[in-house]
Amino acid sequence: MRIPIIYYMLVFAPVAIIARLLNADPVIVFGLSALGLIPMAKLIGEATEELAVYTGPKIGGLLNATLGNAAELIITIFAINAGLLDLVRASITGSIIGNLLLVLGLSLLLGGLKHGTQTFDRRTAGLNATLLVLAVVVLAIPSLFDRALIEVPASELLFSEGVAIIAIILYGLSVLYSFTAGGSAVGHEHGHTTTSEQHPAPADTVILREAAPVHTARWSVRFSIIALIGATIGTAIVSETLIGAVEPVVESLGLTEFFLGIIIIPLVGNIAEHLVAVQVALKNKMELSLAVSIGSSLQIALFVAPLLVFISLLFPNKLLLVFNDFELVALFGAGIITALIAQDGESNWLEGAMLIGVYVILALAFFFLPAVAIHP
Q1: Of 12, 96, 133, 258, which sees the most CB atoms within 10 A?
Q2: Each residue of 274-285: pLDDT tens digit?
């Protein structure tokens, strides 16, 4: 069996741990840890998909829906434990805008350059876009009302917990819908009729009408479970190493914790998944590409972020769903422009270039944004 090139990067994980034990430069430790986490995230995703083949489309879809962003969830848990709540919230924001602007932008750009105008189901894309705008609103409401609740910390936490419960319920309903109305839809590919009941949807796909390519299991159940457990443990160890180097890196490079969280951390946790969306776009499967990129954003906003609120209750530092004005602007901008692109059922390379342009502008803005502006 041919080993994907990305798995050779696993060597960076033990090297990062050794470098930390030897008290190497924190910048080197951070870089090695980041490189080591990329194949770990890929391995978790692949092991989940392999298990999904054996469990069937219903349970497999649920596995993908819950473990699609496992690597990033683990990283943020260690960040909560370290008290880096700004980095956690920035990571949530960065993952959402990264999927909507950078990943979707690259998919539209490269797919459009290769195939010209690409089409996808308007109703499905429109429903996903509506859910996306809903997710942004769900994250924005606690942030806006917090200014009135800040004098009562207990109310702040209770409000975030209430919103988190409702968000998780909405996410569960969207997954349920994908198993029923969305999951029973029929797709046509190269003259053959396939249905999503024949195989599980890829990770992070919430509502998908075009059938994903049939996936044949390459790993045994035992090997898949061992790989999933091993990758999860490895991700936890390397994540702790990465988070431990954050503050020294911030001081050494003159970056802000906010920039690391909103740009660097999301790329580390999601880059392997990002490649999937671009690859299927190059194969002219735009509906699947949109489902992966938008679906991942929905999972982060409606499941991962709310779940972190409850996980933070186990630690001294409690996470609130309260984002700063800069994050809210980025979230609303990314959500609205993605919804507009999805509404006509067509995409082209120019739309992809526009999305990437907005992402680069935001990245530059966050790079130059002083720490004092985040907490005036």
Answers
A1: 96
A2: 778 888 899 998
